[in-house]
Amino acid sequence: MCAELTRHVAVDLGASSGRVALGTVQDGRLEVEILHRFPNGGVPVQGRLYWDVLGLWREVLRGLSLAAQHGPVSSVGVNSWAVDYALLDRDGELMGGVRHYRDPRTESQMERAFGRLPREQLYQRTGIQFLPFNTAYQLRSEPQQRLEQAATVLLLPDLLHHWLGGPPVAEISNASTTQLYDPQARAWALDVLEGLELPARLLPRLVEPGTVLGPLSAEVARETGLSGAQVVAPATHDTASAVAAVPAQGEDWAYVSSGTWSLVGLEVPEPVITPESLHHNLTNEAGVAGTTRLLKNVMGLWMVQECCRAWGRTDFAELYAEAGQVAPGGPQLDPDDPRFLPAGLDMPERIQAVCRERGQPVPDGQAAVVRCILDSLARRTAEVLSVLERVSGRTVSTVHVVGGGSQIGLLNQLIADASGRRVLAGPVEATLLGNLLVQAQAMGAVPTGHLRAVVRASVELTEYLPHSHPQAASAL
């Protein structure tokens, strides 16, 4: 391991908040300091839902300015959620706003696409699960005139890298989520673009995680006070960065990247594209070092977040503690029910209505509603783990829960109980760690293949064993 101290800056954009963090690598360890936090969310305008991308850019610059106060920085990299994009014109200028994946414009687009390319053929070529907001269906929702006027399409992290000074490229961990990417060839699926009547000329050059894109632009350096830093594409999909920081050993493990979404998956050497993986709507997304993330999107803590927004509560830890006092064996529902996808202050009522429809007891009170959500998420996680074992031929004995959900002891214990598997919780900031370590590796501060060893040396994990009892959780 390199003993020399290096600093790197990670920008992590989530659907509800963003962070800019400084990572310091030395002697095989990584220390992370979050310098700047800021809110994020959809902006409704006349029935449409947008991201405030210029506001995000302002916050990124603010975070970089704070990083400059800590001394020289080797590199900067951005990760975010998947599928959403910006169109740039021939002068490189932003064309209008950046739509939110929950915007209603994609309704029925997926079914229309199947009229051009059958579902089975589309899955065989891309290996990506069918979600109504995939980039392919968003692009098909664009007015033809806008596509004709556009020169390129950039996913959100690629747009910010371009504004930071890098060329217009597409990093593959995010590109692989678009349903326009061939996971076998690790290239754009040009026949799919043709079949869906989408212009291939819009798609930029693909690059691997850890690609050095070039120095910060002179303008950004002046604005932030950073000089000498390189723009590095990490694994720009936040889940890919989180998986890169899973502190696992061996092959008998799965991960749950737990946040607004819950991503339940395996890291495999090759895509798994079979009739059974299609039947279960599993997805094959590109990971670090040529790996594939075989996973399933499960509705995550989004339901809790929307309930808390409706109740006006921000004390999540207290609410989870209250939910832990609710007797087990209560109602459960399917968290992937599409009725829970849209935003809305009526989320608690939707949950109660679905329980009533299923003939189950209706959760009464905030703690009971949250316990219903967590029980349901745990059961669904266990179901997906069993499917992944069957489809991949692997045996999973340990489940690594990373991200914000790793702090929720009740949820982690419920996953252990529902799945009958050991759960290791942590790191909380897996996405930031993965982003920073891929950058550090690209800059020569971490040897190739040592990312997870650095994570294990840098964080403490908590173990949860099946069957709830007071001694079920212990620090490792």
From TrEMBL:
This is Rhamnulokinase family protein. Belongs to the FGGY kinase family. The keyword Kinase applies. InterPro entries: ATPase_NBD, FGGY_C, FGGY_Carb_Kinase, FGGY_N, Rhamnulokinase. Pfam families: FGGY_C (PF02782), FGGY_N (PF00370). Residues 254-443 form the Carbohydrate kinase FGGY C-terminal domain. GO terms for molecular function: ATP binding; rhamnulokinase activity. GO terms for biological process: rhamnose catabolic process. It comes from Deinococcus sonorensis KR-87. Keywords: ATP-binding, Kinase, Nucleotide-binding, Plasmid, Rhamnose metabolism, Transferase. Transmembrane segments: none annotated. Residues 9-243 form the Carbohydrate kinase FGGY N-terminal domain. Its EC number is 2.7.1.-. The keyword Kinase applies.
